[in-house]
Target: Iron-sulfur cluster repair di-iron protein
Amino acid sequence: MHALDLQQTIGNSVTEHPELVKVYMDHQVDFCCGGDRTVSEALEKDGADLEAVLREAEEAMAAAGTGAAAGPGVVLLSDLTSGELVDRIVGRHHAFLKRELPVLRELLSTILKVHGHRHEELYEIHKVFRELALELESHLVKEEEELFPKLASGGKECGELIRELEREHDGAGEALHRLTELTDHFRVPADGCRTYGIAYGKLQELVADMYLHVHAENNVLFPRFH
Ligand SMILES: [Fe+2]
Ligand SMILES: [Fe+2]
Model:
């Protein structure tokens, strides 16, 4: 049985079941900013189809094996050593960004050129994305070249650097939220072409991956060194 607990906070539900990010995003349920609402409040307020969310959540949790009967092979971030966590963050999330940011940059420039005259929001999306990508580039360097090596040698006196990185996470979170709004939750307009669909699909993946990435750092790795 992999039932979604409606009484827990929506923030907690994603912490325990990262696979729910996609389900919430598909149903336009805000799990970031409204993180301390209960799942049931959030679904109601954001006007989600309760039955569909429950069904999809159950399927996602069963596929990920993180429901009540979590099987072997399921990795809980809190069980990892800090070294393993860092390897996972760099190997998955940083690699994802290094691969996808340049691709998205091209895609967003392309659709701006083709559709910008009819979809003015593309100018703002282009700008917000460019600024975010620029920030993230130096953020990753700061983590990989400064913080992570320090953590590997005990993590003494990292408090200030960690706080700075957390502030950068907040800034990135705002940009991601803004992109979600500007794209109307990644809804491709009727006159959008295939590239438009690919660009919005990739933007949505970026938001989902960033959520898991920041969660692993802010809530699991960084508190060990505060
Ligand atoms: Fe990171
Ligand atoms: Fe980070």
The chain has a mean pLDDT of 89. Residues 78-225 form one domain. The first helix runs from residue 10 to 16. The CA atoms of residues 103 and 199 lie 9 Å apart.
